[in-house]
C-alpha cells in the first residue's frame, strides 16, 4: 500500500529539488562526468575462441573444463550506477542555529547532498538508487534513470530521522553489497556517530564490511555534521574546544542516555577536544586502510562547494596515475 505523502515533506522536497538543480547547473556542471565517467570495461560473457582472438583473452578455467578454447568477452562500461546509503537514525536530526548564522540540520544537509549528486547523475544518463537505514534497513529504492526518479529519491531522503533509532553500519554495508551486484559509486551519507552523548566519538564497528564493499565498488564516505557536533573551529581550521557554558545536560538521541558535563572545567574541555581530535584521526585511518575516500560536508554554507573540491581532488589524483 502506498504511503500518504505529507504536504510539509513534499514542500521540503520541492525546495531541495530547486536548490539542488540550481547547484548542479551553476557550480557542479562537468565535475561529475569528468570524475566518474569512462571507468573502463566490464566482463560480459565467454565464447569459443575464433581466428584473430588474442591468447591473453583466453579463459583457461573454462577451456580446461570443456576441452576446447574459450575467450572472455568484455564490453565498454558506458553507464554508471550511483547508490546512496543514507543514515536515518535519530542523531541525524541534530542541528544548531547560532544567532546570525544560517545552518541546516544534518538530515536536511544529507537530503540536499543526495539531490545534488543524483541530479548530476541524471544529467549524465546514469542510474541512481537509495538505501535508508537505522539499526535495520528502512527502505530500498532500486537504481533507475531520469529526473522523476531523482525527485522520488529526494522525497525519500527528506523523511525525518527515526525517533530513538540507533545506527547499524555493518548491517547497512552488508545489505548494500548484496543488493548492488554490479559495480557502482556508493555514497555512504551519515554523521558517523555511534552511541556516546559526549560528542558520539566511538568509531562504528564496520571496518570489515567497509573493506568488503570497497573491493567491489567505488565507496565514498560522506560525513555530514554540525560544526558543534564535529568539534570544528572553522576560523582556526582545527578542532575546537567546548564553549564555557557551565553545566550542560547532554542526551544521546539514539539511546536516551544522558550525562552532565561541566564545561567550566578546563580539564573537561581539553579531554573532549582530544577525543574529537582522536576520532577524526581514526576515521581518516579507517578510510585510508579501506581504500575509501572521505568527503566532509558541513551544515553551513554551500553543499556544492565541498562536492566540487572533492571532484577536483579526484581529477588531480587520476591525472597522476
What would you say this structure looks like, in words?
The protein is an alpha/beta fold and 321 residues long. It folds into 2 domains: 7-33 and 79-227 and 292-316, von Willebrand factor, type A domain (Rossmann fold), CATH 3.40.50; 41-76, no CATH class. Helices cover 40% and strands 22% of the residues. The chain has helices at 7-26, 31-36, 60-66, 106-123, 147-157, 169-179, 207-216, 227-230, 266-290, 304-320, and strands at residues 41-48, 70-76, 81-87, 127-133, 137-144, 185-190, 218-225, 232-233, 238-239, 247-251, 258-262, 293-298. The strands form 4 sheets. Strands 5-4-3-6-7-12 form a 6-stranded mixed sheet, with helices on both faces. Strands 1-2 form a two-stranded antiparallel ribbon. It has a two-stranded antiparallel sheet with strand order 8-9. α4 links the parallel β3 and β4. α1 (7-26) packs across α5 (147-157) and α6 packs parallel to α7 (207-216). The longest helix is centred in the C-terminal third of the chain and has 25 residues, at 266-290. The protein is globular. Mean pLDDT is 81; it is low at 196-202.
Amino acid at each position: 500500500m502506498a504511503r500518504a505523502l505529507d504536504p510539509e515533506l513534499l514542500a521540503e522536497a520541492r525546495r531541495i529539488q530547486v536548490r539542488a538543480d540550481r547547484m548542479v547547473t551553476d557550480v557542479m556542471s562537468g565535475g561529475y562526468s569528468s570524475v566518474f565517467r569512462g571507468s573502463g570495461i566490464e566482463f560480459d560473457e565467454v565464447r569459443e575462441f575464433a581466428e584473430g582472438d588474442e591468447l591473453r583473452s583466453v579463459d583457461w578455467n573454462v577451456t580446461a573444463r570443456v576441452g576446447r578454447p574459450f575467450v572472455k568477452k568484455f564490453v565498454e562500461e558506458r553507464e554508471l550506477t550511483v547508490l546512496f546509503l543514507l543514515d536515518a537514525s535519530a542523531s541525524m536530526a541534530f542541528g544548531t542555529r547560532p544567532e546570525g548564522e544560517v545552518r541546516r540540520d544534518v538530515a536536511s544537509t544529507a537530503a540536499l547532498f543526495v539531490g545534488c549528486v543524483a541530479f548530476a547523475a541524471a544529467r549524465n544518463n546514469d542510474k541512481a538508487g537509495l538505501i535508508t537505514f537505522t539499526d535495520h534497513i528502512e527502505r530500498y529504492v532500486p537504481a533507475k534513470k531520469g529526473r522523476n526518479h531523482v525527485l522520488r529519491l529526494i522525497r525519500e531522503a527528506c523523511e525525518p530521522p527515526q525517533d530513538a533509532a540507533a545506527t547499524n553500519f555493518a548491517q547497512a554495508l552488508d545489505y548494500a553489497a548484496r543488493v548492488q551486484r554490479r559495480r557502482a559509486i556508493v555514497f555512504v551519507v551519515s554523521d558517523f556517530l555511534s552511541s556516546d552523548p559526549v560528542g558520539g566519538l566511538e568509531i562504528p564497528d564496520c571496518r570489515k564490511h567497509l573493506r568488503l564493499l570497497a573491493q567491489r565498488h567505488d565507496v565514498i564516505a560522506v560525513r555530514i555534521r554540525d560544526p558543534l557536533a564535529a568539534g570544528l573551529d572553522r576560523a582556526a581550521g582545527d578542532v575546537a574546544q567546548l564553549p564555557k557554558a557551565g553545566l550542560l545536560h547532554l542526551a544521546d538521541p539514539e539511546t536516551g542516555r544522558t550525562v552532565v558535563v561541566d564545561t567550566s572545567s578546563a580539564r573537561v574541555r581539553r579531554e573532549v577536544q582530544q577525543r574529537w581530535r582522536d576520532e577524526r584521526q581514526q576515521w581518516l585511518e579507517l578510510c585510508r586502510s579501506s581504500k575509501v575516500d572521505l568527503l566532509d560536508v558541513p551544515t553551513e554554507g554551500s553543499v556544492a562547494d565541498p562536492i566540487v573540491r572533492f571532484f577536483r581532488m579526484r581529477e588531480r589524483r587520476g591525472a597522476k596515475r
